[in-house]
Amino acid sequence: MDFVSIRIITDDVTRLVTFYEKATEVPATWSTEDFAELRTASGTVAIAHTRTVALFAAGSSRPADNHSVVIEFLVDDVDRTYERLTGQVTDFVNEPTTMPWGNRSLLLRDPDGNLVNFFTPVTAAAIAKFGR
User: Fold this and answer.
1) Burial class (CB in 10 A: 0-12, 13-18, 19+), 125
2) Above 80 in pLDDT, residue 132?
3) Residues 53 and 90 in one domain
4) Pairing mode, if any, of strands 70-74 and 44-49?
């Protein structure tokens, strides 16, 4: 089994896609006006309109209501990412901080309030874990 993607349900696909394109510097591929994907080497962030929920199970997902998942991106330099996003992101939860498990992390919220973590391994163990 392989993990392939995470899908974010939103009422404003264009706004969220624009945010993630700027934040990740990854261009989106649009399938329809209700569905786009940002593909990286290790996984995909899919962004879908609330209208698509009915195709699976009506009412099973609510936009802008995430309180338990953090979307994470491994970056080469989290401090540089923070500098680049300053002025674009309006809700930083923290500035780059070195965590006890060896990653330097930047936590923010996307326009729908989802938590997003950009991180760079900085200790030997964390660098070995991520091959960086």
Assistant:
1) exposed
2) no
3) no
4) unpaired
